[in-house]
Design a protein that fits this description.
This protein is mainly α. Helices cover 55% and strands 2% of the residues. The chain has a two-stranded parallel ribbon. Strand 1, helix 7 and strand 2 form a beta-alpha-beta unit. Helix 2 crosses helix 6, helix 6 packs across helix 7 and helix 8 runs antiparallel to helix 11. The two termini are 42 Å apart.
Length: 267
């Protein structure tokens, strides 16, 4: 629903249900023999998320190997460009290592290396100021949020902890409110004016948050309406997903056939 609401066209973009592609877990098993445990342990993204989730020494094995599962997601359709946030670059590097190891060991160019496409705003911090928005951390603004929910979340957003009084100079760097304005406010001159005022003092957090709320409401309102419209016809949405899944199955079967042939498992 989120994809459709923001304008992703299923006729141009194949959207599929991951759990209905059996080739993915099979590829993951093969790829696990191409990656060392030590390499997975030192993946910066994995290390960071282990800390965020508070696993300590009780890290599930399935969690540790999810970069390998992501490599299967990417290579099963032979993607060559993947749009990602900056924090996901280690995953792209891991995928390319798998691709190179496979092609070298089995002496056949079956898999395709991938390039990361990082947008200008590579990721958004959470509303609590944490590194990024995360469902598990509960610091997200969702596309389906009501106007009241958005306003409440913006009002409670983390800002500059040193900006105690309106007249105090405030910091713009690392301040999620300004990061969001940079990302979503089309009036860049207005944003720069707010930044300058905030930095020299005399501008309260509530004023900046009020402006951010207005910007987000203008953007998210139409998206929410489209989302609600699609939600009224779940049958059509599932049909789109089934169509995309069938198309992906066909591609995945071909990729796995080539992988098995290279590994001499095509008996």
């Amino acid at each position: 629903l989120d994809y459709l609401a923001v304008g992703i066209d299923p006729e141009q973009t194949t959207i599929f249900i991951q759990s209905l592609i059996p080739q993915l877990p099979e590829l993951t098993i093969y790829y696990l023999n191409l990656v060392t445990w030590n390499r997975l342990k030192h993946n910066p993204t994995v290390k960071q998320e282990i800390l965020q989730k508070g696993y300590g020494e009780s890290v599930p094995a399935g969690f540790m190997v999810y970069p390998v599962s992501q490599a299967a997601d990417i290579t099963v359709v032979k993607a060559d460009i993947v749009p990602v946030g900056e924090d996901q670059l280690p995953m792209i590097e891991q995928t390319n290592e798998v691709v190179r190891h496979f092609n070298r060991i089995y002496q056949k160019q079956v898999l395709v290396e991938v390039q990361a496409l990082i947008p200008k705003i590579s990721r958004l911090p959470g509303t609590d100021g944490k590194a990024k928005m995360s469902k598990s951390l509960g610091n997200c603004i969702y596309l389906g949020d009501s106007a009241d929910a958005i306003a409440k979340k913006v009002k409670g957003m983390y800002t500059d902890p040193g900006h105690l009084k309106v007249e105090d100079p405030g910091k713009v760097e690392g301040n999620p409110v300004f990061t969001y304005l940079d990302a979503f406010d089309p009036d860049t001159a207005k944003v720069e004016e707010l930044k300058a005022h905030y930095q020299r003092g005399g501008l309260g957090d509530s004023v900046v948050k009020k402006h951010l709320n207005e910007v987000l409401q203008a953007i998210l309102g139409p998206i929410r309406e489209r989302r609600e419209s699609y939600a009224k016809d779940p049958g059509s949405v599932m049909q789109m997903l089934k169509k995309g899944t069938e198309k992906t199955l066909h591609i995945a079967e071909q990729t796995l056939r080539e992988v098995r042939q290279a590994m001499c498992l095509d008996y």
